[in-house]
């Protein structure tokens, strides 16, 4: 197999895998956001519990979905990275490193995807071909 094909396949696996895994955090937040129960969520940035939950939901659920599809991939990683840094240093700021480790690992993965893009197996790449 050619190196470029392997790189694109690796980007697909990393992008779709990390997007699917972050959805397991975003979907419950979405259900809380649209549910009937009063919203109980940390007000991490002083903007209110509902707004904080909405921002985390947007990043983890909606941007996670965009990541899986490879659509607007680099833009989708920005809210995800901000959310992961907020989780690591604000929500878990006083916690031991073990609680910061997962959001920091996600941050590194999303940073990698932002730098290298979605790869050939993505809607971003499909859109580029239609412009030619």
TrEMBL record:
Species this chain originates from: Algoriphagus aquimarinus
What topology does it adopt in the membrane?
Multi-pass membrane protein
InterPro entries linked to this entry: DoxX, DoxX-like_oxidoreductase
> Per the UniProt record, which residue ranges are transmembrane?
44-68, 75-92, 104-123
- Kindly list the places in or outside the cell where this protein is found, as annotated in its UniProt entry: Cell membrane
Instruction: Cite a single Pfam family from the UniProt record.
Output: DoxX
Protein name per UniProt: Putative oxidoreductase
The main place the protein resides is membrane
Similarity comment text for this entry: Belongs to the DoxX family.
Which keywords accompany this UniProt record? Cell membrane, Membrane, Transmembrane, Transmembrane helix
One GO cellular component term noted in the UniProt record for this chain: plasma membrane
From which domain of life does this come?
Bacteria
